[in-house]
Design goal:
single chain, 7-stranded mixed β-sheet, 7 strands, globular, alpha/beta
């Protein structure tokens, strides 16, 4: 609700991630955008690939909400959000690499900055994402929990491979 959003921003948030359940929900998105600007809204899309079909889910991947990729892309592109976070449920936590074909298929058709999540296990996986997709950002966490590597090490690796990043 807008009251929840107000509380988050009052306590220091500068962006809010809306789950799949708000996909196509223009009332809440309009309220947030009007009050805080659309740059403050990230729409999250959790997807699975089953038999080559991209399906979108909510409730931590337990409830399928949409099986039409074109419809999901239209809803995102027409929505008043600032960014979209796409999460590969199949790859999330695997440390086996991003789902490059799916991320590329989705990100190249979305007119918003696209953040990709799910699967990074080493720096090369992140480099692959930037070199092989139109993704705006890579999101990861497990890789930092299971290695001695630091965020600075990743940044240096990307810069050394000609990827523009914010330092």
């Amino acid at each position: 609700s807008i009251n929840d959003v107000d509380l988050y921003f009052k306590n220091g948030a500068d962006k809010i991630i809306l789950g799949n359940c708000t996909l196509g929900e223009n009332i809440l998105i309009s309220e947030i955008s009007k009050k805080y600007g659309n740059q403050s809204i990230i729409q999250s899309l959790d997807f699975k690939i089953n038999d080559g079909i991209v399906s979108f889910y909510k409730d931590s991947g337990n409830k399928q909400i949409l099986t039409d990729l074109d419809q999901a892309i239209r809803l995102i592109n027409s929505s008043n959000i600032g960014e979209v976070l796409i999460n590969s449920i199949n790859k999330d936590g695997s440390l086996l690499g991003f789902d490059i074909p799916s991320f590329n298929l989705i990100s190249k058709n979305i007119s918003k900055p696209t953040l990709c999540l799910g699967g990074a296990g080493n720096w090369s996986h992140i480099l692959d994402l930037f070199q092989k997709t139109t993704a705006s950002a890579a999101c990861t966490q497990n890789i930092f929990h299971f290695t001695e590597e630091s965020i600075n090490s990743l940044k240096n690796f990307l810069v050394n491979n000609d990827i523009n990043i914010r330092k």
